[in-house]
Amino acid sequence: MNNNKILFISGKDIESMNLTNEEILNSVEQSLVAQGSSQTVIEPRVHLIPNPSINGHFNILRGYIEPLNVAGVKIVGDYVDNYKKDLPSELALLNLYDPGTGMPLAILDATAITDMRTGALTAIGAKYLARKDSKILGHLGARGTSYWNVILLDSIFNFDEIRVNSRRPESREAFAKLLTEKLGKPVIAVDNSEDCLKGADIMVEATRLIEPEPFLLTRWVAPGTFVVPYGTISAVENDLTDVMDKIIVDDWGQCKGGKFGSLRYHVDSGKLSQETLYAELCEIVTGQKKGRESNDECILFWHRGLSLNDIALGYLIWQKAIAAKIGTELTYR
């Protein structure tokens, strides 16, 4: 590309690429390998709250991946009430940069990227930490990232039963219908979190709450369960970490600070600390620590969302766009 040009890659451009499940998973897992090999820089996310009276804020994520020779910054709006305006709750842009010169390389609609990389991280966590014979998935929430959670998890486990729940009947019914059509097997919409989660081998909590409220109860966690709570506002009980044999996060630097996150209380109260944390996922992916070691272990994976995952997936899309001559060149200077 001309050094004075930046490639803009729209949501429609990304949709036209029809990325495969394998491409998404491999891209995100490679970013974890780089992280576990100390070949990355991750700056803790920061937030911008424009107006406390509005149920929304911006997250700013920044990182660098040495093997890809690329840096990136993503800004994503997180607005709970966007469904009332027929908008996704999360809208994002990702900028990719040459780390040697600071030259912008590409601007990407990162809304779908955010959804894909979140689903990929959930699925990769399950690949290493859930029981291999997991056959029942219980999923709370029907937000944008939820689709890729289910699609990518099912690509690994081929579940016998998938249950979904969200607070609004219209959203859970539409979500179940979409997944049923996509997966070619029944996905059950249930009207309460107990019927959704109790007895599930893998429990995912991806709710959109304004105030903390327990929808994933500790007593439903049976031996061998894999639990992934990643809502912005907590939907779990305070004693959830007490029943876990292992707690894993995507990056402790991101999880230990800030005001948001499903396990914020657990960090602030000292229940989850550097001492009680078992590992970061990248340590397990790179073999530095073991993942699941028995079928009876209860394991929790909390991911806040890593800039590295966005950047790796954005880099893949950027390279595919160049090869296919997709996107719009913008004059930078």
Automatic annotation (TrEMBL):
Keywords: Lyase. One of its GO terms (molecular function) is ornithine cyclodeaminase activity. It is an enzyme of class 4 (lyase). InterPro entries: NAD(P)-bd_dom_sf, ODC_Mu_crystall, ODC_N. GO terms for cellular component: cytoplasm. Its EC number is 4.3.1.12. It comes from the Bacteria. This is CTER_nithine cyclodeaminase. It comes from Ruminiclostridium cellobioparum subsp. termitidis CT1112.
